[in-house]
From TrEMBL:
It comes from [Candida] subhashii. Coiled coil: none annotated. Residues 81-207 form the GST C-terminal domain. CDD domains: GST_C_EF1Bgamma_like. Residues 248-410 form the EF-1-gamma C-terminal domain. Residues 211-253 are annotated as: Disordered. The keyword Nucleotide-binding does not apply. Pfam families: EF1G, GST_C, GST_N. GO terms for molecular function: guanyl-nucleotide exchange factor activity; translation elongation factor activity. SMART domains: EF1G. This is Elongation factor 1-gamma 1. Residues 222-233 have a biased composition (Basic and acidic residues). Keywords: Elongation factor, Protein biosynthesis. Pathway: Protein biosynthesis; polypeptide chain elongation.
Length: 410
């Protein structure tokens, strides 16, 4: 007899319940949101659980506790005694209510998911400067948060700390908090979390906020009959400032001009019917595998996305920060799914055979995953066409997801 259904998505809070189900081999179905979910959980909370006899649970800690008790009520994941059990709950609650929301608020504000507010970022970082030492002091004395064995507290907290290491915990931070870093590395390499974070790479510097470019003010017309201004005498030669150094060239400029100008493709795309004219023109006239490469671009943190319009704003901010590479690439990114269950994907044409010189002009480029596409593969070609046209659902993990919004980089 089935032990229930776990409603889980790619959101970070879904990891711990999935780990427990696998650890104990529970007969629990893992499902994305469906019609029953909306009926049972009108608040849209993830994860959520439906058990026997009408049991309905939301809130990740409650779900994890129930699943562990299904597997083994005496499991060390809940501690060895009442004192350790209380500590497990303490660290789980602290990570769930304080650490993850603060980390998310900081990096989402920096990346433009939320409107930028320096006070929000400063206050969030100030709180983390007080909270992280609590972990550091504990982990200086113990291997794990509750003694010398892994508990639910470690699994839950480490999965949340990923967002910090992904975005705001750079090399200097890791030197400052060696015990927390050691603990985190141990957990993501453990049997519990290794499958979710294989070959994890740490960032050197935290993400930085890049303000949008300000529009140039229109030049005011000169006033009629304005009295001529007296010219100031030129400064002496020895006071002359040295000429400004030339701006560094974009690394892709070294490749020279391609045979097919990118501007012509952008003009065709903007002015012609996409499926009927623009896409055939692209394959016949623009794409040359010797000069260009094609890339699938996926946002790494779909589990943290909420409203679709905010996800689309995130794409817009990313495109603004890519402006230095406008001459060297073209692409489209879409938001698929619905509020509180959506993702970001897209396709780009890039000058040359490497994506990094084109994308690393944006400080948040490492928040995206890049996969090279082979135009001779029919599946890849269909994906590219759809990213350019936005008129068919996106296939994600074998499931059709409707496109909610998107933006074009041109």
């Amino acid at each position: 007899m089935s032990q229930g259904t776990l409603y889980a998505t790619q959101q970070i809070r879904s990891i711990a319940p999935k780990v427990i189900i696998k650890q104990f081999g529970l007969d629990v179905k893992i499902s994305d949101k469906d019609g029953d979910y909306e009926k049972y959980f009108p608040l849209g909370k993830i994860p959520a659980f439906i058990g026997p006899k009408g049991l309905k649970l939301h809130e990740v800690i409650a779900i994890c506790l129930y699943l562990i008790n299904l597997g083994d009520p005496k499991s060390n994941l809940l501690g060895k005694n009442a004192t350790e059990y209380a500590q497990v709950i303490k660290w789980c609650s602290f990570a769930n209510m304080e650490i993850l929301p603060t980390i998310a608020r900081v990096f989402r504000t920096i990346l433009g998911v939320f409107p930028y507010n320096k006070k929000v970022v400063d206050e969030g970082n100030a709180f983390l400067d007080k909270a992280i030492p609590v972990f550091e002091a504990r982990l200086k004395e113990f291997t794990y948060l509750v003694g010398e064995r892994v508990t639910l507290a470690d699994i839950l907290a480490a999965s949340y700390f990923v967002r910090g290491f992904d975005n705001i915990f750079g090399a200097d931070w890791r030197k400052k908090y060696p015990n927390t870093t050691r603990w985190f590395k141990t957990l993501i390499s453990s049997k519990y979390l290794s499958e979710y974070f294989p070959d994890y790479k740490f960032r050197e510097k935290p993400v930085e906020y890049v303000p949008p470019k300000k529009e140039k003010k229109q030049q005011q017309p000169a006033k009629k009959e304005a009295a001529p201004k007296k010219e100031k005498p030129a400064p002496a030669a020895e006071d002359d400032e040295p000429p400004a150094a030339p701006k560094p060239k974009h690394p892709l400029e070294a490749l020279g001009k391609p045979k097919a100008a990118l501007d012509e493709w952008k003009r065709v795309y903007s002015n012609e019917e996409t499926r009927e004219v623009a896409i055939p023109w692209f394959w016949e006239n623009q794409y040359n595998p010797e000069e260009w490469s094609l890339w699938k671009v996926d946002y790494k943190y779909n589990d943290e996305l909420t409203l679709t319009f905010m996800s689309n704003n995130l794409v817009g901010g990313f495109f603004n920060r890519l402006s230095a590479s406008t001459k060297y690439m073209f692409g489209c990114m879409v938001v698929y799914g619905e509020n509180n269950n959506n993702g970001i994907t897209g396709a780009f044409l890039v000058r040359g055979q490497d994506y990094k010189p084109a994308f690393d002009v944006a400080p948040d480029w490492e928040s995206y995953e890049f996969t090279k596409l082979d135009a001779s593969d029919e599946k890849s070609k269909k994906f590219i066409n759809n990213m350019f046209a936005w008129d068919e659902p996106v296939i994600v993990n074998g499931e059709k997801r409707e496109i909610a919004d998107g933006k074009v980089f041109k």
